[in-house]
């Protein structure tokens, strides 16, 4: 008994035990809550302002730290930037990345300064959980998650993206200007940076222009 | 034994030890690059600098004023080694900063990453930042160093282990240090690449990623490889090895240090000779000659599409048992089993006890023992001549099988003699059980003729051969990486090999097949079988302990042989 006492006394001091709020008799009838809910619905119904998102006619604005479809970046020479270090494949908790490395074609002047490159690079976009660990693990900023969120396909096979497909995602997203290449990234990647404030600030998550 | 104090931990060390080995006994790591147990000492990397002092007769301790290389400093009674002082730690940091000055830090594409001593030591003893502002020296990669080796020059830390290896162990001396100062490089003379039969070892010796195996280059990151302790089956030296596999594919073999077997190294024939285990031509399904019993004659997946999920083995093994029994009843002395010298002791024992258990009049024989040339001794002299006796550091043996002695001992126990299957006359028996397992064509003409076309021919093998083509029953067996068991090398050293991968498709490791044939219950368990063999066969009494450890045990019969382990 003497041993259990010191164990319990600090627990009382440090731990705050949460308790359900006590309901008054009126609250226990739930009538005020029902009334306030109905009031909200009626207010929206008569305001004349649409509260529904007009998707897909109006697309929502995606925050810059959104983790969507992957892309493989190109370097200045237009080659795939990936050096096939397998860091993303190692970091991936969903086992959705598969790389086969090969020695770079040294005879080709285009590849002269590279030793190793990914002969194949496939990501199973259906298996991926979009955690962004691959992007954080990449030592050369080659794999990035874009803000492309509306990924669809007719077969499972076409959702397994190969190197060419991932490079084409890069070409498209860079052309659209939505996802600039994040080369000079911060210590922990762009998502860790302090968001700009004021006029330049992007809208908060989930609230597009069309509201 | 002398008493040494390492960071206040007292240990008994061998007076022949240097500071690194003495510290290792105390559980203290002294980082080192250039020093290697089986090479000469050059003390050039300066990584192992430690504080060393001695205990005076009056009990006072006198530490040396300077740091000394731990690899080069011998120990004596009362030696004091300090590796945790500020002086030593600063020195280690500075040494690593120097070694990393021109290192390209391309760990992301370097094959060594994950087992690299530059990474490990920098992490443990180094400084996280480089103060170098100048551009790094960049040097050309050298793919011409050897057929199996590529040199990534700018990763090199100039430990010269590889140079000393080719001079001292292989004796071929192809590798040199050229130029001086920060322009030092490893290179070969024009048109004399490093292609000796031990060349692959320089890749293992290289503590960084400078020397890489072309065979393994960019194939797999090393942290995905799983290691199994095994024995090389290339020749009767029986080198201890690690089999490195991932997802059921063997990527490389590495030598495992074993002073009783071969030392630190292995030959390229063994190192790169494992590829046959993934050959497409391997036997993958057991076959019965007549398809009447429900298993198609060819047994490929497409032809047995309706049976593709059915296990063919119960049918085949039932048939094997039935027909062996029939054949032995009809003509017991006409039944011959051929035990391959590539079988493990356990497999040979299982087969021998099964056949002899049915009728002692049956005959057990030894399969062909492949011999290629003569023993290849290293280090070679300047003209390629073999070394003087007693100076031999490595031997590639002519006998290209791992377990002739083990199988012979089993045969001596069950048959009272070792009969070579080759020496039997033409069509000398009516029924044969032939075990193969060889990596290449092994059916000698005399064996082929001796077997002829008997009334029953059962072949247990990994590749199709003239015998398996005309066999009544073919049992698809396992290669060395799929088997488990004991091999007895040329010097009577019994070493345990562990299975690392599963056999392809429906093939089964020999031990599993024979367990079921012999009607034993339970799974194949090499350890339990070793205990049984050790108690039943006097010659194998040494392996009755079951667990042979990393280095194996010497059979009593060969314990007194003067033949050195490496000669």
Detailed description of the structure:
By secondary structure, chain A is an alpha+beta fold. Chain A has a domain of 120 residues: Alpha-Beta Plaits, CATH 3.30.70. Chain A has six helices and five strands. Chain A is elongated. The two termini of chain B are 28 Å apart. In chain B, helix 8 runs parallel beside helix 12. With 567 residues, chain B is α+β, with helices and mostly antiparallel strands. At the A-B interface, strand 2 of A face loops of B.
Short description:
The complex is a heterodimer of chains A (211) and B (567). With 211 residues, chain A is an alpha+beta fold.
Topology at a glance:
The complex is a heterodimer of chains A (211) and B (567).
Chain A: H1 4-14, H2 25-28, H3 31-47, E1 70-72, H4 87-91, E2 97-103, E3 116-124, H5 133-137, E4 143-145, E5 160-161, H6 163-176
Antiparallel strand pairs in A: 1-4, 2-3, 3-5
Chain B: E1 2-6, E2 9-13, H1 19-25, E3 49-55, E4 61-63, E5 68-69, E6 79-82, H2 86-99, H3 117-125, E7 149-151, H4 161-168, E8 175-178, E9 185-188, H5 201-205, E10 211-213, E11 226-231, E12 240-246, E13 249-255, H6 268-272, E14 287-288, H7 313-330, E15 335-339, H8 345-358, E16 363-366, E17 376-378, E18 394-396, H9 404-415, E19 431-435, H10 445-451, E20 456-461, H11 466-470, E21 473-476, E22 485-488, E23 493-497, H12 510-517, H13 526-536, E24 553-554
Parallel strand pairs in B: 1-6, 15-16, 15-19, 19-20, 20-21
Antiparallel strand pairs in B: 1-2, 3-4, 3-5, 3-6, 7-10, 8-9, 11-12, 12-13, 14-21, 17-18, 22-23, 23-24
Helix pairs in contact in B: 2-3, 8-9, 8-12
């Amino acid at each position: 008994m003497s041993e259990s006492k010191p164990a319990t006394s600090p627990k009382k001091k440090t731990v705050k035990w949460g308790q359900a709020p006590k309901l008054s008799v009126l609250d226990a009838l739930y009538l005020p809550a029902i009334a306030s809910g109905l009031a909200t619905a009626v207010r929206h119904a008569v305001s004349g302002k649409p509260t529904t998102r007009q998707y897909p006619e109006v697309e929502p604005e995606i925050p810059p730290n959104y983790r969507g479809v992957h892309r493989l970046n190109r370097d200045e020479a237009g080659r795939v930037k990936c050096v096939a270090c397998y860091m993303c494949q190692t970091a991936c908790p969903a086992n959705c990345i598969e790389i086969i490395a090969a020695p770079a074609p040294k005879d080709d002047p285009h590849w002269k300064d590279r030793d190793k490159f990914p002969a194949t690079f496939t990501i199973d976009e259906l298996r991926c959980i979009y955690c962004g660990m691959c992007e954080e693990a990449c030592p050369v900023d080659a794999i990035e998650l874009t803000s492309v969120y509306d990924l669809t396909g007719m077969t499972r096979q076409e959702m397994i993206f190969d190197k060419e497909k991932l490079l084409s995602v890069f070409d498209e997203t860079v052309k659209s200007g939505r996802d600039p290449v994040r080369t000079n990234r911060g210590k922990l990647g762009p998502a860790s940076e302090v968001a700009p404030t004021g006029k330049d600030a992007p809208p908060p998550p989930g609230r597009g222009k069309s509201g | 034994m002398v008493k040494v104090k390492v960071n206040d931990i007292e240990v008994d060390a061998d007076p022949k030890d240097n500071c690194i080995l003495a510290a290792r006994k105390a559980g203290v790591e002294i980082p080192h690059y250039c020093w290697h147990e089986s090479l000469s000492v050059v003390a050039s990397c300066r990584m192992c600098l430690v504080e060393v002092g001695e205990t005076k007769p009056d009990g006072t301790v006198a530490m040396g004023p300077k740091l000394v290389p731990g690899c080069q400093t011998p120990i004596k009674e009362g030696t004091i080694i300090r590796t945790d002082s500020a002086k030593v730690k600063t020195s280690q940091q500075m040494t690593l900063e120097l070694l990393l000055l021109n290192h390209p830090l391309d760990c992301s594409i370097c094959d060594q990453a994950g087992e690299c001593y530059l990474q490990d030591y920098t992490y443990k003893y180094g400084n996280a930042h480089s103060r170098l502002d100048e551009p790094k020296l960049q040097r050309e990669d050298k793919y011409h160093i050897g057929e199996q080796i590529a040199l990534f020059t700018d990763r090199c830390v100039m430990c010269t282990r590889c140079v000393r290896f080719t001079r001292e162990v292989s004796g071929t001396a192809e590798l040199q240090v050229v130029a001086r100062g920060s322009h030092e490089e490893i290179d070969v003379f024009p048109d004399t690449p490093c292609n000796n039969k031990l060349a692959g070892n320089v890749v293992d010796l290289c503590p960084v990623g400078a020397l890489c195996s072309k065979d393994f280059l960019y194939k797999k990151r090393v942290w995905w490889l799983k290691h199994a302790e095994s024995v090389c089956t290339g020749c009767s030296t029986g080198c201890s090895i690690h089999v490195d596999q991932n997802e059921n594919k063997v990527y490389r073999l590495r030598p495992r240090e074993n002073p009783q077997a071969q030392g630190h190294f292995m030959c390229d024939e063994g190192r790169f000779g494992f590829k046959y285990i993934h050959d497409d031509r391997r036997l993958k399904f057991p076959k019965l000659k007549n398809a009447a019993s429900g298993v198609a004659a060819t047994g490929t997946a497409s032809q047995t599409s309706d049976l593709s999920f059915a296990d063919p083995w119960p049918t085949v093994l039932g048939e094997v048992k039935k027909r062996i029994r029939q054949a032995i009843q009809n003509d017991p002395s006409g039944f011959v089993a051929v035990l391959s010298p590539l079988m493990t002791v356990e497999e040979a024992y299982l087969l021998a006890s099964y056949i002899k258990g049915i009728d002692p009049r049956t005959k057990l024989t030894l399969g062909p023992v492949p011999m290629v040339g003569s023993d290849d001794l290293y280090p070679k002299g300047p003209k390629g001549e073999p070394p003087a006796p007693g100076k031999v550091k490595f031997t590639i043996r002519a006998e290209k099988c791992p377990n002739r002695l083990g199988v012979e001992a089993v045969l001596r126990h069950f048959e009272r003699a070792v009969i070579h299957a080759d020496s039997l006359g033409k069509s000398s028996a009516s029924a044969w059980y032939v075990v193969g397992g060889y990596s290449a064509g092994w059916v000698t003409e005399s064996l082929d003729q001796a077997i002829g076309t008997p009334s029953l021919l059962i072949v247990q093998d990994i590749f199709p051969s003239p015998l398996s083509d005309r066999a009544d029953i073919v049992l698809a067996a396992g290669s060395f990486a799929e088997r488990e068991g004991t091999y007895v090398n040329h010097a009577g050293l019994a070493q345990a090999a562990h299975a690392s991968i599963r056999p392809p498709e429906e093939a089964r490791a020999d031990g599993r097949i024979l367990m079921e044939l012999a009607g034993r219950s339970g799974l194949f368990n090499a350890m339990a079988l070793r205990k049984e063999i050790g108690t039943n066969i006097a010659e194998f009494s040494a392996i009755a302990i079951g667990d042979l450890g990393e280095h194996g045990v010497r059979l009593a019969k060969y314990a007194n042989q003067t033949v050195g382990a490496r000669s």
